[in-house]
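User: Structure tokens for both sequences below?

Assistant:
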Amino acid sequence: MGRYMKFTTGNVAEGYKTVEIFIDDDGKTAYKILRSGLLYLDRNKKIAAQMSDEWVKELAELEIFSWKKNFSAEVADGVQWELIFEDGREIYRGQGLNAYPENFERFLDWLDALVPELEFVNRKRLEKITLDYSRESAIGYMISECLTLDRREKNLTLDKKNAYVFANHVYRLGSNKEKIFDACQNFFDNLEIEESDPYYPARIKIELVRHDGSIENFETSYNENFLPGMTNLMKEIQNCASDLTAEIFSPLPAERKTEDKYIFCKVQFKGSYKHYTYRAEDETLSVGDVVDVPVGKNNDVATARIVEIGYFEEYEAPFPIDKIKKIIGKHIADDWENY
């Protein structure tokens, strides 16, 4: 009797995407694209290129008939979806609003293999991340570690190598996969790498493979000056391999100020998402400290929290030393406890 599927997803603002799929008993597949975004497309049935036996088999592995009928998050608007699936006499009808079955991403990957033009999967989604770390030890031999996250294989792999030993560790990401890849996507999509010191002892090469097949490569010093926020990302990754120790999980802290170094702090005001940069002279300041800072033409005193600290020589300072405002000092009060 074959199998039939109709899937729709989208929202009012951006329009809806709808596809109908027909799979006969021999696995031959045809489809119709009924609507893409706000535009109607050719509704004629198209014969798909020969889909692999594995693709047809994966439909059964999705276990769609085990999905519940309604998925809904407590949000008034957002992404809606609706699915009708018929296999012989069995029929599934389900829908959702900002909520999905546990294996919904795998389902979208399955659809994307047939109709990539509908972009059910973000073309820039990270599929594989490789972080290749190296530094020279105090006695002259190289220490290297290579961390790989693979979405398709659902693995975290860590290779450790020095003059005396090579070790390979493989961890299944399991239910942590989406959380880890979401954290990586957010970090790398917003990463701005400043020019790094080519002689810095710890280096990292980064390779990002995206869903559209594009590959991005870059290299920088492995230091919180050059990769701010990397420590938090590594803590997220290490949650699924808590028994594993590696230098790569601990980026070197930003160098403390010397006579020719200047301290720059990014701060965030309560109720705002923007970051503002100030100079500081207090070497004891840390990320998370609440400080008093001057604002506006009259230099009124306001309170903000430090979200990032960097240490720079004058030639590499992000702002002119003689023009940027300075932090007044730590704020002593308890009204920021719940910030």
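Moving on to the next sequence.
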Amino acid sequence: MLQINDLCVSLGGSSILRGVTLDVQSHHVFCLMGRNGVGKTTTLKSIVGIHRNSSGKILFKGEDISRLASEERARRGIGYVPQGRGIFPHLTVEENLHIGAVAQGKKPKASLERVNALFPILKDFRHRKGGMLSGGQQQQLAIGRALLTEPDLLILDEPTEGIQPNIIDQIGDALKLLRRGGHPHEHDLLAEASQLLKKEIDSAKGEKLEKLHLLQDQINTLRRSGGLRSHQDYENLSRSFDQIQSEHPHEGQQLGNEIASALQILHGEKSMTILLVEQYLDFCRELADDFAILDRGNVAASGRIHDLTDEIVKTHLTV
């Protein structure tokens, strides 16, 4: 999804990034870590086009975007949640949410519904000024604003900084859902599909009955799997049921449409790649697939999150 090759950035005559190379894979959460002042925020700002690199390349979905303006990078599918949130304090929550989407000429109704489901407080406070929200609520607003631009890559700079623990948990749960393309109400939707399918099974026979039983087993397995559910699982369910319907087009059409609708909602959510700068170690370990640690403008360590040993933490992160 995102490759950074030998990136060098200088600011005010000082060399900040000295040959940073990163590989952020599609549908992964990548955590960029490091002590203060090592170039983490500079890396993110270089990706989104706020800072220009003096050498090296930034490839997004195979395209070199190193010389593109920030707005062009956003249009190609990069969403950015800056450190400090950057909301507009005198605009309402609703106006803050829509400002990025409006700038890109989008009317993201489905994305707004997703944001309201992920962060219900934003819907409740939609007429409140952004500056009247708590720090945690402002962070949810900043994330929601980025989501309304419908990005393929969501970049967040210190999303847990200065936020109360319960909202950190909400943000973590939201990022997990976004990563795998999960629906905030997926448990209820799976239960609804299961109940509708039982009614369909009661009236089916022959080969269709056998296939519906297999589909019911798949749904029940997903209901038990919790956070291990994936976007691909839902897509497979929907495809399997569509195939059954196409083979038996005149049997239980109305009920079949209701089942198809529930499955369509489940697999209709967009799966995202997430890149975040974060210093809260437990948050990173719970959420991330991959990591890299910057030190003095270079990558000092990287790998899968299970490779982040206590020795690496002591050497490169402990102050």
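User: Anything stand out in the second?

Assistant: The radius of gyration is 22 Å.
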